[in-house]
Automatic annotation (TrEMBL):
It comes from the Bacteria. This is Transposase.
Length: 52
């Protein structure tokens, strides 16, 4: 049994915002999901720079 994973899943509530980030060498991408896994908005793209 993987109790730690189940404990982490139980911490996700209706008010939780889940953000996934794909780190790249020049460009990064981020997506936001609600607690049900439904995507909120579009993919956010930003560059790997001092301003980004």
């Amino acid at each position: 049994m993987n109790c730690k994973q189940n404990e982490r899943i139980n911490q996700v509530k209706e008010s939780t915002l889940v953000v996934g980030i794909d780190i790249g060498s020049t460009t990064h991408y981020a997506r936001a999901f609600d607690w049900r896994g439904i995507e909120l908005g579009k993919v956010f793209k930003f560059s790997n720079s001092r301003e980004g």
